[in-house]
């Protein structure tokens, strides 16, 4: 645990000096300056002994670990490196080519702190790794490609694509739940596996419609304070197709930097792309919640709700948190409990 605690010290140093690297993060991630500052609130800086023991247990043991990072969430490298460091005394880290800024800053701090176990490598062929583990973060296709290339005996732990889901119960305050969910949506412009893209609203169809309108209003207010950053070309194309598709199913509340679609219960559910897009579905019963989640349950990494008692309705592997806190899980293991 002491190794991870030293990493937390380094994370605090990076956070304290974030003004020096924030412009570069905005340029590489596509986030606005305000979005970068919001994202830094999710950088892990503290952990309890209980959480650290859970992280160490989840990390396991390895001779050495090679970490291959993705670019979806710029603060995610810290947890990935902490897990690798908890597992092994020798760790190499390949940063994302598109968004390497925080990784480099963190490893500069570890070098200054005298932790020689961590080495930054700009490129490394995984088929040259003879022992230990490879921890891969990114698309499922990337993980599959690494698994196909590693030598026999090298373990690959994949952390792949996923999404978050919100469940709003019958007793929740519509305005409070919409405001809290908007915070989870805006963080990282919805690019992370914890980011909610679907909101299941329990109760009548009218209640779901009221919530969709309230979420649209909350996203507009928050967007004025934290503008959405630039979308990449594929994200813009995905957003356009999604908006055109959901418009046939029900009303869509649109703005320049977000959209909220309302889909009737039982209709086919088209998952929205990143970029502050949310599908709201009215669900009349608890069984309807389970049925709505079933087609994509294996991709659900996080569930945010006003009532943590809904756990029995959600996938067992999903993290659960209060709405508004989905992007700040405790440092107790991988954010994605599906990983293997």
SSE topology:
Layout lengths: L1 H15 L1 H12 L3 H8 L8 H11 L5 E4 L8 H11 L3 E4 L6 H12 L5 E3 L12 E5 L2 H10 L5 E5 L3 E6 L5 H13 L9 E7 L2 H21 L7 H14 L5 E4 L2 E6 L13 E7 L2 H8 L6 E6 L13 E4 L18
Helix pairs in contact: 1-5, 1-6, 2-3, 4-5, 8-9
Helix content: 25-40%
Tally of structural domains: 2
Provide the gyration radius in Å.
Answer: 20 Å
Beta-strand content estimate: 15-25%
- CATH fold call of the largest domain: Aldehyde Dehydrogenase, Chain A, domain 2
Named at the architecture level, the CATH assignment of the largest domain is: 3-Layer(aba) Sandwich
General form = globular
Mean pLDDT: 94
Largest sheet geometry: 7 strands, mixed
Helical/strand content category: alpha/beta
**Overall strand count:** 12
What is the count of DSSP helices, taking H or I runs of 4+ residues? Answer: 11
CATH homolog superfamily of the largest domain: Aldehyde Dehydrogenase, Chain A, domain 2
Q: What distance separates the N and C termini?
A: 22 Å
Poorly predicted regions are: none
Order of helices and strands: HHHHEHEHEEHEEHEHHEEEHEE
**According to CATH, what is the class of the largest domain?**
Alpha Beta
Tell me what the structure shows.
With about 350 residues, this protein is of the alpha/beta class. It folds into two domains: about 1-160, Aldehyde Dehydrogenase, Chain A, domain 1; about 165-320, 3-Layer(aba) Sandwich (Aldehyde Dehydrogenase, Chain A, domain 2), CATH 3.40.309. It has eleven helices and twelve strands. Strands 8-9-10-7-6-11-12 form a seven-stranded mixed β-sheet, sandwiched between helices. The radius of gyration is 20 Å and the shape is globular.
